[in-house]
Structure formats: C-alpha cells, structure tokens
Design goal:
Elements: H1 2-20, H2 23-32, H3 34-40, H4 44-72, E1 76-78, E2 87-89, H5 93-96, E3 101-103, H6 104-120, E4 126-128, E5 152-155, E6 159-161, E7 167-168, H7 190-196, H8 204-208, E8 217-219, H9 221-232, E9 237-241, H10 244-249, E10 257-258, E11 271-275
Parallel strand pairs: 2-4, 9-10
Antiparallel strand pairs: 1-3, 5-11, 6-7, 6-8, 9-11
Helix pairs in contact: 1-2, 2-4, 6-9
Amino acid sequence: MKIRRISLVLLMFSILTLLTQVGGVIYLLSLLLHKYVHKWTENKACRAAYKCALFLVLYCLATFLVVPGIAKSFGRVPLPMTQQNHLRPLNIITCILNRHYVKLEMSTIAYEVAKQMNDKYPGTCINYLDANFPFFDSFPLFPHLSHDDGKKLDLSFCYRNTRTGQFTNDCPSFIGYGICEEPLPREEDMPCSCSKQGFWQYSLMSKIIPQGNKKKFTFDVSKTRSLIDLFIGKRSIEKIFIEPHLITRLRLSSNKVRFHGCQAVRHDDHIHVQIK
C-alpha cells in the first residue's frame, strides 16, 4: 500500500510539473498540510474535497502572486492574462498553467506589433498561444520541442467570419492549434510529405481537436501577412516558422521565415516567432 501511494505521488508530481512547471512542487507542499485536513474531519469525501481545495488555493496563490516575481530573476515576464494594449491570450488556461512567460524583449515586441496591427486594422486584438514556462532554460514547454528559454511565442492566424465576411478576433480552435489552413491543390503539401516519412506526430493535433468550427472561419491572407511582416521588421526577431505552402501563399520572402522540420508539428494553424 505504501509503494502504491508513493507511486501515485510521483505520478501526480510528474504530471503537474510537466504541465505547469511549478504544480509538482506545490502538490508536495500541499501533502505536508494534509495532517491538518485530517484534524478537521473524519469524513473521507470531505477530506478529499478539502485536499483538492487546499492544492488549488496554494497553486493559485503561487501562480498569481509568487511566480511572477521569481520569474523576473530568470529574465522573464508574464504576458497579459486579459486583453491589454490589443494583446491577449486566446485561452486563459495558458496563463493558469504558467505557459505565458517570455523575455522582456519579446514582450515588448509583441505589444508593439499588437498596437501596429490595431492602428492598421482598428479593433484588432492579437491572440497569443503558448510562450514559455517562468523558470530555467532547457525546460521545454510540453508538448513543444522548444519554447524553453523565454525567446519563443506562438500566435494565432487572423480570420474573417465566413458568414459576414467581417474581421474577427476569434479563432476556430479553442486553443489555437489543430484547425489547419490546408494546402491548396498546387501548393507544397508538407504535412503529407512528413507523414509519408513516418513522422506520425506532425498532424496529430488536427486529429485530436474537433473540426466543427472550421467552416465558420475564413483564413485572412492579407491581415495575417501584415502580422508576419511586422514581426519580420523587428530587428531582434531571428526566426518565424510557418508551413511552406503558406509561405508561398502569403508571398513571404524574408530569410527569417523558415520551415521548422518534420520532427516538429505542422505550422499551418499558428505562427511561431522567436528572438535572437
């Protein structure tokens, strides 16, 4: 029984650390306080509820009050949790899981581009997706292969409402990933090529995420190109990853815009930008 309990604790610690970086440590801290929960009640159901509540309270306190301050010593700052200066997370869960930290330079660039986009397209708000964890280089943001140094940031494409034809700040995927702008018949089909080479993970997200919203949104070519061009124009931006068929469709010629390789996942559902 003791071995089973230790195994369960290690499993929970690993999962929480993998998903949030700090959740595993907070979980261990909450275990130290369980003895007080046992004093409050002998009811097993109540004990389980109190233990969950205890972890959630500790996690929220750490995530919103403690982690941002410590992250500064690692040279990272959080992106906004709500819409601020035309920049926002597509999904608040990104922030709750501590996946919204970047270097100050990347934060500055993101805000600048968001403002420039709103100046050009009034009412526009840029949606960011995954960024980085708050601490430590070489601690990748699962399931990404990189996003481990505060220098990377994913952004959603720009869309129009298919029914009205008007700009929209919403996205077809609730997490920003998995609903792709597929290659047209004469465009390079890298997803197909990578799959034939045995890279099973390349299109995995598109098989997991429900596709029901896809027909409600139309990929906005001109607006998405404007967004990418603004990042290209920033001196500190080193690389921008996007799928080859979209590089052609958007007529992107900068050497900053590159193919990310079949070992990653497809990038015709989001834009990856990173600083030097």
